[in-house]
Amino acid sequence: MKYTQLGRTGLKVSRIVLGTMNFGPQTDEADSHAIMDAALDAGVNFFDTANVYGWGTEKGRTEEILGSWFAQGGNRRDKTVLATKVYGTMSADMDDVWPNHNKLSAVNIRRAVDASLKRLGTDYIDLYQFHHVDRNTPWDEVWQAIDVLVTQGKVLYAGSSNHAGWNIAQANETAARRGSLGLVSEQCLYNLAERRAEMEIIPAAREYGLGVIPWSPLHGGLLGGAIKRESEGARRSSGRSADALANTFVRAQVEAYEDLLGKHGLEPGEVALAWLLAQPGVTGPIVGPRTREQLDGAVRAVDLDLGEELLASLNEIFPGPGPTPEAFAW
Q1: Annotated active-site positions, please?
Q2: Using one digit for the tens of pLDDT, what is the confidence trace for 71-127?
Q3: Which of 10, 177, 223, 307 lies most in the core, judged by the most C-beta atoms within 10 Å?
């Protein structure tokens, strides 16, 4: 495994981030524990979760699974850089959301972090991430809450997720005025097929020293050999991947992508991860394996050198939007 600093911090994290969103809904507790053990064995030390994972009536279940894994001992917690998130309501019924039980008010941040710590069975969170922008809470209030948590030792670093470039700038300018560290990472949708983050989010993150943590690096399976699986009669694409393949232009792109990699004898999913690892500012993509085999493939991507020629070919198939403001100004 290779490691890098998380943004401008001194914190060292693996270049593959273990996403745990499937733990509970799709992967039972025993298999989840096995995947986490395998990740540690492979040198993956950066685990990402969220308080709402488990979904529906099981919100919080994923954090509980991590907590029961930490409780097994073996220095599991000490070896893990733990990231979780706050924003969404923990109520199973969206029509039964009590005031101040979601978003980023100081009241909810305080309540949510204590609840996450209890479920996780730990006394601190390495990276506490804002799952979405709260348009009604000023950043001064957010940072006041986080500063208290840092002083208490409950949170070490703060990060954002699904924020725009100007949100990142606003957050860190406010933090600087307060003498606070501010955001150290941004978790955003970014992959070969979805490159709009390159216009403003990634430049803002790099300017302010945030590590970029891409989610959905395979675009819901689209970049993991989706067309090949269809032709072999395997599980058909669904969700984000199926929606994309319904577009004839995108389908042609994916066909060209799979044909190119077939000529080089490369696995599409591993290449999609390796491409992200080659992008400036990227700390590491989040992978959400359901099996040990999927985890092994993700780990192999760390050592995959694509070379300038192949990178150029990939950029021809999936061109980015270009720099801002040129990308939209003319």
Answers
A1: 53
A2: 999 999 999 999 999 999 999 887 788 899 999 999 999 999 999 999 999 999 999
A3: 223
